[in-house]
Structure to design on (77 residues):
């Protein structure tokens, strides 16, 4: 893992905003491990990041309502 971000205490739209800010500071190909609660963040963040060209490597449940999303930052063109 290059970077980990726990946004389980955040609410939409801040979950996506904080995720994007961290991704902006990573290099293409770097991996972000994102911790989210199920529900809106789990539904929206992977879809939105994929639409921006980032690669979702894994989405897995690691707790009762907590999920880990592994995101590879897209290559800049």
């Amino acid at each position: 893992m290059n970077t980990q971000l726990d946004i389980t205490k955040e609410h939409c739209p801040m979950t996506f905003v904080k995720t994007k800010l961290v991704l902006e500071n990573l290099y293409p190909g770097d991996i972000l491990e994102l911790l989210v609660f199920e529900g809106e963040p789990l539904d929206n963040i992977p879809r939105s990041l994929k639409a921006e060209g980032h690669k979702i490597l894994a989405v897995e449940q690691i707790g009762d309502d907590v999920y880990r999303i592994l995101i590879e930052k897209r290559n800049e063109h």
Residues 40-51 form the longest helix (12 residues). The beta strands are 3-6, 31-37, 55-61, 66-72. The chain has a mean pLDDT of 92. The chain has two helices and four strands.
